[in-house]
Design brief:
2 domains, 4-stranded antiparallel sheet, 6 helices
Length: 157
Amino acid sequence: MTRATSLRDDIDLIDHRIIHALREDGRLPIGELSERVGLSKTPCQARLKRLRERGIIRGFRAVIDPAALGLDYVAFTEVKLSDTREAALEAFRQAVLKIPEVEECHMLAASFDYLLKVRTSDIRRYRAVLGERISSLPHVSSTSTFVVMETLRDAGS
């Protein structure tokens, strides 16, 4: 049994309600959270603490509007590596994490190896990040870019 399976098997309906409520508003006061899930404060706090200790709730963060910061240009970049042995993959992983414009990085089972979500101020800045940073990452042999025209929903929503 995997760790993820054992974690899923051990959360009940009330835990799911807590998780759902906090996904909508991670700043809910414990009193309001306990009312929403049908518990008194003390058991609700205990469950919240258990969910955090077990890593089911990994933390809380502010959801920022990137457009308000002038970062409304989004592109997805396919990255093909010249070497996919573990040492090469690890070198790529460590280097890509140092590029602040890379908002997400996913290894895929596809005709390319990684898909990056890159957020910049405009096409010129994206081109610079692609040319100076992404293309020079370890073992990158080619890239392909897809420009986002409209976002209906993303992880930050």
